[in-house]
Amino acid sequence: MRVLGVDPGLTRCGLGVVEGAAGKPPGLVAAGVARTPPSADIAARLLALEVEIDSWLAEYRPDAVAVERVFSQHNVRTVMGTAQAGAVAVLCAARRGLPVALHTPSEVKAAVTGSGRADKAQVTTMVMRLLRLADPPRPADTADALALAICHLWRGPQTRLAAAAVAARQAAPAIRRTPAGGLR
Description:
CATH class: Alpha Beta
Shape: globular
Number of strands: 5
CATH architecture: 2-Layer Sandwich
Oligomer: single chain
Radius of gyration: 18 Å
Order of helices and strands: EEEHEHEHHH
Low-confidence stretches: none
């Protein structure tokens, strides 16, 4: 399985692609960052992210996309930009019919380091070890994107089972109550 991990951000959006399977060491395919200038108009910045993410999807052809779930921050402006960048990644994946998973920062940390409270340095160190890298991915957004992709590789079957359960519920015939309280 090949996964594109996206650490969303307007100024720096981390992108990382890994291959592998649950229980096996992941392999690095690509890593980088999409940048937009803070002085640019929000529409132009989101469009630039869309073009870059779509380019990665076309070039690396992942089987799934893992995006960091936005969590509440004190700085509303920052969380809004992060949420918008994450939505662009979700939209790009949906346009191509790719499954998308949203993983919380603590879920990613726990998957990669064994502790949901690990700091950025610990996550980067484990990403280096897991992917057998000599140097840490830079900037940190890239290491976070790779950690997201690794997390999804290892926890993906849970995501697929949940999606299958939703599809089964939607496919089942609807049971409706009649006005008298009986079933139809």
